[in-house]
Amino acid sequence: MIYLTTKISFLLNPILRMIHILLLPVLISGFFYYALRPIVDYFSDRKVIRSVAILFVYFVAAALISLLGIVIWPLLQDQVTTLMNNLPQLIEGFRNQIDQIQQNRFLSMFGSSQSDWSNRLSGYLDNGVKTAADYISQSLLAFTNFVVIAATVPIIVYYMLKEGAKLPLKLLPFIPKKYRADCKSMLSEMDNALSGYILGRVIVTSILTAMLYIGFLLIHLPYSLLLAVISFVFNLIPYIGQFLGAIPCLIVAFIVSPAKALWVAGIIVVIQNVEGNLIAPHVYGKRLDIHPLTAVLLLLIGGDILGIVGILAVIPIYMILKIFVRHLYQLFLEKKVEELVE
After folding, report:
1. Separation of CA 255 from chain center
2. What is the tens place of the pLDDT at every residue in 146-164?
3. Is 175 within 8 Å of 183 (Cβ atoms)?
4. How far is CA 303 from CA 11, 232, 299, in A?
5. Contact assessment for residue 74 and residue 226, using Cβ atoms and an 8 Å cutoff
6. Is 0.70 surpassed by the pTM of this model?
7. Is the Cα torsion angle 319, 325, 327, 333 positive or negative in sign?
8. Rounded CA gap, 131 and 133, in Å?
9. Cα 176 to the center of its chain, rounded Å
C-alpha cells in the first residue's frame, strides 16, 4: 500500500498542498478559539446572545491590541532599530569582554592562547547572529505570505466560537451506538486537555514575561522590552523554550559586563523556579502529563517537519493522539473481558 501510494503522488500532492495552506490559519484559529472561549461562555451563561458576545469580545480585543500598540509598539520599535544599528558594536564589545576575561591568569590556564578563545567565541556569536537573521527573515517572509489569508482567521474563530460546542453532537451520529458514550467522553477529554494546555501556556508565559521585564528594568538591562518579548515567544515552547529565551538575554548582559550577565542569570533562575514550583502547578495541575524527555523528542521532530509551526503544534497533537490511543486500548480490553465472560 505504501509503494502504491508513492505511485499516485500526483493525486496526493494537491491534497497535501491544501493541508499545508490551511494548517497555519487553522492552528492560529484553534489557539484563539480556546483563548477566547471562556470569556464568550461567561457572557453566554448570563443569557447574552452568543453571536453578540463574540462580537463584544472581538471589540474589546481590538481595543486592547490598539492600546498596546500605541503604548508599547513605539518603545519596542525603537529598541529593535537601536539593536540593529548597534549590532557591529555589540559584537565588538563581546570580543572585548572575552579579551578582558582571558587576561585573568586563572582563566588563561584553560585556553591554548589568548586569541584562540576570542576568535572561537566571536565566530560562534557571528554564526548565531547570521542564523538568527536568516530565521527572522524567513519568518517575516512566511508572515508576509500568510497576510493574504490572515483575514480568514477572525471568520474561522467566529464560527468556531459559535458552533464549536455542536461539533460532538454532529459527529456522534456517525459512530455506532454502543461506542457513542465512549466517543463522547474521549472528545470531551481532548477538548479539556487542549483548553487547559493552551490557556495554561499563555497564562504562565505572560506572567513569566512580566516578571522578567520588571527584573530587567530593575538592573537597567539594555533592550529590556525587546528581550522580554523574545523570551515570551521562546517560552511558548515547553521545557526547552526557557533555555532558548535566556540565551539572547545573557549575551546582551555579558556585552555590558560579566557582572550584569550574572545578575541576569540570577533573575532568570529565580523567576524560572517561581514559575516551575508555584505558578505552573496551580495553572496546569496534572493536565500536562508528558515526560520532559518525550516533550524534547517531540519538539525536535515537529521542528524538523514543520519548523516553528511544528514546534508549537506537536505537543497538542501528541496529547490528542495519546487520549485517542488510551481510549482505544480501553475499548480493546473491555472487549477481551466480554469475550472471556462469554
Report:
1. 28
2. 565 667 888 888 888 888 7
3. yes
4. 27, 18, 6
5. no
6. yes
7. negative
8. 5
9. 37
**Tens digits of per-residue pLDDT, 101-160?**
666 555 555 555 545 555 565 565 566 555 555 555 555 555 555 565 667 888 888 888
CA distance 312 to 34: 15
- CB distance 297 to 214 below 8 Å: no
Reading the block at residue 51, the C-alpha cell is: 453571536
Rg (CA), the chain: 25
SS (H, E, C) the chain: CHHHHHHCHHHHHHHHHHHHHHHHHHHHHHHHHHHHHHHHHHHHHCCCCHHHHHHHHHHHHHHHHHHHHHHCHHHHHHHHHHHHHCHHHHHHHHHHHHHHHHCCHHHHCCCCCHHHHHHHHHHHHHHHHHHHHHHHHHHHHHHHHHHHHHCHHHHHHHHHHHHHHHHHHHHHHHCCHHHHHHHHHHHHHHHHHHHHHHHHHHHHHHHHHHHHHHHHHHCCCCCHHHHHHHHHHHHCCCCCHHHHHHHHHHHHHHHHCHHHHHHHHHHHHHHHHHHHHHHHHHHHCCCCCCCHHHHHHHHHHHHHHHHHHHHHHHHHHHHHHHHHHHHHHHHHHHHHHHHHHC
Rounded to 5 degrees, what are φ and ψ at 290?
-130, 130
Do the beta carbons of residue 101 and residue 107 sit within 8 Å?
A: yes
Read off the C-alpha cell for 33: 478559539
